[in-house]
Specification:
2 domains, alpha+beta, 393 residues, two-stranded antiparallel sheet, 32% helix, eight-stranded antiparallel sheet
Length: 393
């Protein structure tokens, strides 16, 4: 057994094939489905269209017009909070139940099938106001019945659970195209050097590498009685700031998606994306900086950097090569800017996130901070950091 091995067997050099063994600080990202009219009618159009028909046809059209206006403001407020102020979502309870399978019970709903989102509250009362708008839009307090029917109050949502901190991008340039037995006298005409960027943490960082669990929940509904926690125990001279909570029930769950055991197993579903800090993305962290240099015509600065990289790498590869480069031959290397050409060609494809399962990808841009003008990958990369601000920076 491993417990009885010699202590030297567990030194760093012996376990380097299993590099990802740091503690983790887990957080969550919430995505609401704003596009699927069948599975998410509350957000995708049917509920709003129903209220509009009431406002157009009923004798009390002005009353229902008020309901319609409240519903539009509710959707706008929810999307704004989730995309631009995700720090309001402070905690999430109930996710563990989704993984607690009962082989004898296939139904995932019931009284215990609910998520409780613990939230901040602030001066303009955004969470209390959000649920106030929901109640105003969905319920008729005069007739004491629902305005929006149950089937149109349903929606679909996804919850990602992942590391909240950014994972350091351990990138370094590597020199390719030089054989070990390259003759010094013919340098540099006998080689075609190229510089590639390697990331030692590529297997665990970025939207294509970061570990995650993703839970898809169906037939979700907001608990109309939630969002009132600050009013439960008011004090004339409060000592603590107000907090709130939003409760969401669900009736079904999709098969759990996950990318786990990085560095131990190989089947990590690399086509699935996950939230990550933008600095972890290989293309954003390295390639875009290079592109900006090219756009800004910093050719001289770029050339100096490339030559310096060659010098450093040459010294590591072969001291004689770098000495020759310093002395006389660096300027003879044709089109030194082209050393990076392969990197440039990969820019467009580096952030390609096509092939996403279901329609999660179509909803990412609706839910994540910094969506304006960003690709889906760029938007997702901001989510984990923004869920808790810059606490771990």
């Amino acid at each position: 057994m491993a417990d009885f091995k010699n202590i030297t067997d567990f030194r760093k050099a012996k376990t380097s094939q299993f590099p990802y063994q740091d503690p983790t600080y887990l957080s969550f990202v919430i995505l609401f489905d704003y596009n699927d009219r069948v599975n998410s009618p509350l957000f995708s159009g049917p509920a709003e269209e129903f209220l509009k028909k009431l406002a157009d046809n009923e004798r009390e059209s002005s009353y229902y017009a008020g309901k319609l206006a409240a519903f539009k403001e509710f959707k706008k407020a929810l999307k704004t909070i989730n995309t631009e102020m995700p720090w309001y979502w402070q905690s999430l309870g109930g996710i563990e139940r989704i993984q607690q399978f009962d082989p004898m019970v296939a139904y995932r709903g019931g009284d215990d099938a609910k998520l409780t989102i613990g939230t901040l509250e602030s001066l303009n009362l955004p969470i209390a106001g959000l649920m106030h708008l929901y109640r105003k839009a969905c319920f008729d307090e005069r007739k004491w019945n629902w305005v929006i029917p149950e089937n149109l109050r349903k929606f679909r949502m996804y919850v990602y659970v992942t590391e909240v901190r950014k994972i350091k991008n351990l990138t370094k340039p590597t020199l390719n195209g030089i054989k070990a037995n390259t003759a010094l006298k013919n340098f540099p005409d006998n080689i075609k050097p190229s510089i590639d960027i390697e990331n030692a943490n590529a297997g665990i960082s970025g939207s294509a590498g970061r570990p995650f669990f993703m839970f898809g929940l169906g037939h979700c509904e907001f608990d109309i009685t939630s969002g009132v926690t600050p009013f439960a125990d008011l004090q004339k001279s409060p000592t603590d700031s107000a907090a709130n909570e939003v409760v969401i029930s669900y009736e079904s769950s999709n098969p759990i998606e996950a990318r786990v055991l990085n560095g131990i197993i190989e089947d990590l579903k690399p086509d699935n994306i996950s939230p990550a800090h933008e600095s972890e993305d290989y293309s954003a962290d390295n390639l875009n900086d290079f592109v900006n240099d090219k756009i800004n015509k910093k050719a001289g600065e770029l050339k100096d950097k490339a030559i310096q990289d060659l010098k450093i790498l040459g010294e590591q590869k072969k001291n004689e090569l770098i000495q020759a480069a310093r002395n006389a031959t660096v300027n003879r290397i044709p089109s030194i800017d082209n050393i990076y050409q392969n990197v440039v060609r990969g820019i467009d494809g580096a952030t390609d996130v096509t092939g996403l399962r279901g329609n999660i990808g179509t909803n990412i841009k609706e839910n994540l901070f910094g969506k304006s003008g960003d690709s889906i990958g760029d938007s997702l990369n901001n989510a984990a950091k923004n869920s808790l601000g810059n606490v771990f920076d």
